[in-house]
UniProtKB/TrEMBL annotation:
GO terms for molecular function: triacylglycerol lipase activity. The chain crosses the membrane at residues 21-40, 46-67, 79-95, 101-123, 130-149, 155-178, 199-219. This is Lipase. One of its GO terms (biological process) is lipid catabolic process.
Amino acid sequence: MAETSEATTPLVRLRDARLQWWGRLLVGAALVGVGVVLVVHLTASVAVLSVLVGIGLMLVAADRAVWSFRSPLPRLERVLAALLLVLAVVSLVWQGTTVPFLAVTLAVASFVVGGTAVVGGLVGTRERRAAAVVLGVAQVLVGLLVLLWPRLSVFLVGLALGGWLVLLGVRDVLAGVGQLVGRGRTRRRDAPRRPRRELLGAVAALVVAALVLGLSAWLRAGDPTLVPDAFYTPPRDVPVEPGSLVRSEPFTHGVRAGQEGWRILYTTTGAHDEPTVASALVLAPADRTGEPLPVLSLAHGTTGVVPGCAPSLLDDPFATGLERTLSTMVDDGWAGVMTDYEGLGTAGPHPYLVGTAEAYDVLDAVRAARALDDLELGDDTVVWGHSQGGGAALWTGIVAPRYAPDVHVLGVAAAAPAADLAALAAGVKNTAAGRVVSAYLAQAWSDVYDLDLTSIVAPGYVPVVRRVADRCLWGRDAVANVLFSTQLSGPVIRPSALEGETGRLLEENSPHGTSAAPVLVGQGEADRLVLPGPQDAFVAQWCATGQAVDYRTYPGLDHVPIVESGSPFVPELVAWTEDRLAGRVATPTCGAGS
């Protein structure tokens, strides 16, 4: 016997009669309204979001109750509505609501709604069976996606629920309007097409959910780990004198035509004044006259805190930023030296934002490069640095006369330097990038200073901090780290740590003292990581102690764009550097001689 079409059965006509148009319109309009409020107020507090989530889930429960008249399993739909109502009430009345709780609430709701859709589809009519099952699976995948990132930000929770409510509401409004105006023959004529359209929509939802879930899994897997080879492992016996060349080999990755490159391993001094080793890259013009070359030593920005995050492991370490400008300067007759820092490439720990240790790495790399065969380097050296490297560059100017008087530092230039570390930690503690930096800092200082990580980071954050610290700040690892940081609903470093030993170390590792060499500091006024206000205050305070600083600010430039091609800072930096080599007098904007 042929199966009777759902659109013509008496039972369905009876259900449609009970399903009043006003119920669909009322619930649909309310769903759209609350959904729009959620999307518009994405920065609302957790308390406000909790109320909106509760109201939204109550409306979803009403939606399921209204549509239960068309379901092949109306009792199951009403049980589902009751469960959603319970979740809504809990979200509204529980005083301890948190973002992770709201995220898990959404996941449970997605599982329940999706599972019900799958069961209803399996026992429903043939025309709509596939669409119901596919859409149900898509909703289950959305729940899995939420559980994959259980500590979603307020922004993402509001966006996810708001979008869901708007879609449900539009569906209800359209259905109510269609029933109100009546479609008669048109509905019967379109009946064969409607299941097809529903199936196409369900498949589209499933594809989107599967793609987002797959992308999340891909990001969580991270980039293939770069493993330092045997070059970075020092022999058993190494020279005691810092700045000694341990080994070298040709380096070609990212080296331009007309240039020659080396990878070097050298001795230096660690955070506790202990002998250690680090690696570096050296660039020089391939066509050399034998005359000593001036040296440009670059302290790179944050790349990570584990050995696999060394720039010398990249396919092209000179592709962007000041590294690219360094390569251009080599074309103009300079020799370039770029340390990896201790613990990047070589065995850790990496002294991340430990000022003197990073400065020693910068200076000893220059000393070691002098021992390369067929390369004649002069004493004159200019030091550049960006971000982490900006702070390292400032420290280099301070410690050079004491630690490496044989390295004649003509000038120090720092772009967006991590200078006032306490202000940096406080200023960006609630941003995604700030949490990544805080995680790097917490893990590195736990290792370098032998601090208990649980005493530094907020309760429950240790697993995420370690996961972030194991990844580098490039490629999909960088994106994954930002996403991981959204799982932290508050600052990484606990306030008590900032008031205790960690706070003392932040002050200790902020540049203090004076640099005999001229200092240039460039700061983007739109920088969202190293904030302009604290940087202004740091420079003003440093100048008040007598330090001469040429301080330049750039409207509209963020943290990375200040050192990229097209930034006005870059040509000014090059001109300032050439002036130092030419012996022209620096013109500071504050401090001595201004």
